[in-house]
Amino acid sequence: MPLRPIAFFAVLLLAGACSPTLDWREVRPAGAGVSAMFPCKPERQERPISLAGATVSLQMLVCSAGGVTWGLGTAEVSDPARVAAALAALRASRLDNLGGRELEVQALALAGMTPNPQAVRLRIAGRRPDGSEILEQAWLFARGTRVFHVAALGGAPSDEALGAFFGGLKLNP
Fold first, then answer.
1. Where are the alpha helices (DSSP H) in the chain?
2. What share of the chain is helix, strand, coil (3-state, %, to 5)?
3. pTM of the predicted model as reported, rounded to 2 decimal places
4. Which of 10, 71, 107, 173 is deepest in the core (most CB within 10 A)?
5. 106 band by pLDDT with thresholds 50, 70 and 90
6. Residue from 122, 54, 126 nearest 85 by CA
7. Are 37 and 168 in contact (CB under 8 A)?
8. Strands 170-171 and 43-51, how do they pair?
9. Where do the domains of the chain lie?
């Protein structure tokens, strides 16, 4: 039985409504030794920051999809003695930037990372500049003298989306 014009357009509207909000893709930032799965096309940003007593270049990949900002930041601290302090500083900066508190902290072990007691999984509750509540889920870790901050900020990402994002993170050999 052929579709009537109204039924045909209804089917088209429903098909469009079911299109995925998250469009997953693998990203390999140059020189970072990592590959990541992003649910949107990330933009590359770079800025100098003070980290563990030195100014370093923080390279970031960031995009927004599904009401969530997804990001991967990495910086080379050059000195192995500064790695733990750099990870601690990144953690503290998240709390300061969000005016937040840690809801959950777990030790993190990721294949290929350099073991460090400052490598953690975090859930942070904070506030946006307008005072509304915001939640960040993040990983902080290092490989050699390179530190990483991976985060999903805001919105209400599904467990599946968080699993794809954080589970898609791979340190390259």
1. 5-17, 83-98, 159-167
2. 25, 45, 35
3. 0.86
4. 71
5. very high
6. 54
7. yes
8. unpaired
9. 22-171
